[in-house]
Design goal:
The chain is of the alpha/beta class and 216 residues long. Helices cover 50% and strands 15% of the residues. It has 9 helices and 8 strands. A 5-stranded parallel beta sheet has the order 2-3-1-4-8, sandwiched between helices. A hairpin with a 5-residue loop joins strand 5 and strand 6. Helix 1 packs across helix 9 and helix 6 crosses helix 7. The protein is globular, with a radius of gyration of 17 Å. The termini are close together. The relative contact order is 0.19. The site of zinc ion has 8 residues, from loops.
């Protein structure tokens, strides 16, 4: 399965990705996670990406495209992959298409998660992530069993640096301006399927799995 998860910040891309990659046994490629790992490790890439991310802006295309291309050429992507948070601009989508057609591959499905702004803000400001394993929670919607502690590994739950209200608003605006045009782009290509991202976790997951089945 080759798939893209598209949707505004907080739509549930990361949450659904974790379940989808487990079911379809494919790698989860999240450009946001790759950047956060680089920031944590203090790499050159991390240093470059940091200020854009903290401001809620996009990291420049030239820092993103080659990184993803390299990742897609690794052995574990041979039988498919799930892209989460990439592409995010028309330029990135065109580069991805070029890469796929050069490799004689095609995208099976672009999963578009739709969530209204009000819900996005509630979700992002209430999100907590595990410092150690990255698992994602929500203080109201998906609370951990014990406050502030990861169910999976016992790690401390923290708030992402870009989940404060000012940065969240900026990320949503950036999405509207630079990423939302991809909906039309993929609609035209015929690979886009819309999902109500405001449904429950399980409902969204089941709907995606069903659509993937129909696509095959
Ligand atoms: P990235 O890490 O990709 O963040 P994002 O797109 O802003 O998305 P999020 O991770 O915030 O949200 P999500 O949709 O995964 O939602 P989640 O599942 O956690 O990017 C971060 C930054 O990196 C960007 O701003 C940019 O600077 C840079 N970057 C990354 N890729 C780039 C690229 N390609 N080009 C340029 N720059 C790039 O869910 C959110 C919350 O809601 C959670 O608390 C969750 O528990 C809850 N929730 C999820 N689903 C449900 C549900 N069904 N019901 C109730 N609650 C739910
Ligand atoms: Zn954890």
């Amino acid at each position: 399965l080759r798939a893209v998860l598209l949707g505004p910040p907080g739509a549930g891309k990361g949450t659904q990705a974790v379940r989808l990659v487990e079911k379809y046994e494919i790698p989860h490629i999240s450009t946001g996670d790759i950047f956060r790992k680089n920031i944590k490790e203090g790499t050159e890439l991390g240093k470059k990406a940091q200020e854009y991310m903290n401001a809620g802006a996009l990291v420049p295309d030239e820092l993103v495209v080659d990184l993803v291309k390299d990742r897609l050429q690794q052995d574990d992507c041979k039988n498919g992959f799930l892209l989460d948070g990439f592409p995010r601009t028309i330029f990135q989508a065109e580069k991805l298409d070029e890469f796929l057609s050069e490799s004689n591959l095609k995208m099976d499905i672009v999963i578009n998660l739709k969530v209204e702004k009000e819900a996005l803000i509630k979700r992002l400001t209430g999100r907590r992530v595990c410092k150690d394993c990255g698992a994602s929670y929500h203080i109201v919607n998906i609370p951990p069993k014990k406050e502030g502690v990861c169910d999976i590994c016992g790690g401390e739950l923290i708030q992402r640096k870009d989940d404060n209200i000012e940065t969240v608003e900026n990320r949503i605006n950036v999405y509207e301006e630079q990423t939302a045009p991809l909906i039309g782009y993929y609609k035209e290509a015929g690979s886009l399927v819309d999902f109500d991202g405001e449904a429950s976790l399980d409902e969204v997951f089941d709907a995606i799995v069903q659509a993937i089945g129909e696509q095959e």
